[in-house]
Amino acid sequence: MEGISEVGGIRLRYRIDGDGPWLALVHGVGNRLEVWDGVIAALGAGWRILRYDMRGHGLSDKPEGPYTLADFVADLDGLLAAHRIERCHLAGFSLGGLVAQGMALAQGARLDRLILLSTVAGRTAQERARVATRLALVEAGDASVYFESSVARWYTDEFRARHPEIIAEQAARHRENDPKAYAAAYRVLAESDLAERLHEIRAPTLIATGEHDQGSNVRMARLMHERIEGSELVILPGLRHSVLIEAPERVAAMMGSFLRRRS
Q1: Phi-psi group of 52: left, alpha or beta (phi > 0 → left; psi -120 to 50 → alpha; rest → beta)
Q2: Could you read off the pLDDT of 108-145 as tens digits, one per residue?
Q3: What residues contact 201, with CB distance under 8 A and at least 6 apart?
Q4: How many C-alpha atoms does 230 have within 13 Å on its Cβ side?
Q5: Where are the strands (E) in 18-117, listed by range?
Q6: Is 129 exposed, middle or buried (0-12, 13-18, 19+ CB in 10 A)?
Q7: Are the C-beta atoms of residues 12 and 60 closer than 8 Å to each other?
Q8: Contact (Cβ atoms closer than 8 angstroms) between residue 252 and residue 43
Q9: Pair 95, 29: CB distance under 8 Å
Q10: Calpha distance 126→93 (Å, rounded)
């Protein structure tokens, strides 16, 4: 089932698939709900999955910025309420992982299990400088230019060589982004950091990132793991940032194992 829900005056495109316990999925900056297609197919039956285009993305509204992390968290909270979802599992990728952190802090009692994929916390001064440079590039150009400059950071050389058609499809998707909305969302990714509050998260949490992810790196994943009590950490060997596209089966297997665990 696909439709539009109005949340706080913002129209959000959503899709619901399957039957079973609720699982909400939040994509990364510049993506849309289809980025989860491969993971959902590999995850298989047994879940009622809600995914959506975040504000500024896909077929959802693109209000004028600036956006804040609180805006994205409120959108997710409102969407869950609109569909009468009292409790759910929650997984977020990249910017979506920041939204998931924010949701766990604001509405933790509503979450069963939390999955943070290729996301950020506790950037060093050098890492903040690098992401500020990337933000300037985004604000000066369009999403397709940024995608082309970042593709080597996001995908392994082997994957790019084997699947040029997927890279071309993802580039086309990025060209569809509204430049101002993309920049507004990217600023949230670049400037938000919840590292100092991670110890407050109580939901059972899985943290995962690619071994060679430069932006959402292993150091940050380990920091999140250390600060979220009882969390689990998985480093995905050989991968860079775009694990949802490059390795959906591996991500789904990891997620399924974690979500099915009873304790």
Answers
A1: beta
A2: 999 999 999 999 999 999 999 999 999 998 998 766 77
A3: 101, 104, 105, 108, 114, 228
A4: 10
A5: 22-26, 48-52, 88-93, 111-117
A6: exposed
A7: yes
A8: yes
A9: yes
A10: 23
Instruction: Name the amino acid, one letter, at 54.
Output: M
User: H or E stretch including 27?
Assistant: none
**DSSP helix/strand/coil, 18:** coil
- Domains of the chain (ranges; CATH) run 2-260 (3.40.50.1820)
pTM (2 d.p.) = 0.97
Q: What are φ and ψ of residue 6, in 5° steps?
A: -95, 125
Q: What is the mean pLDDT of residues 190-196?
A: 98
Looking at 176-232, list the stretches that DSSP marks H as alpha helix, in order from N- to C-terminal side. 179-191, 218-227
The C-alpha atoms of residue 28 and residue 245 are separated, in whole angstroms, by 12
Helix (H, G, I), strand (E, B) or coil at 186: helix
* 200-248 tens-digit pLDDT: 999 999 999 999 999 999 999 999 999 999 999 999 999 999 999 999 9
CA distance 101 to 119: 10
Residue 250, token pair as written in the block: 């591996």
Query: Which two three-digit tokens encode residue 76?
Result: 């997710």
Interatomic CA distance for residues 236 and 141, integer angstroms = 32
* Cα(245)–Cα(256) distance, integer angstroms: 17
Beta strands in the chain (DSSP E): 2-7, 10-17, 22-26, 48-52, 88-93, 111-117, 205-210, 232-236
> Quick one: how far is CA 91 from the chain centroid?
7
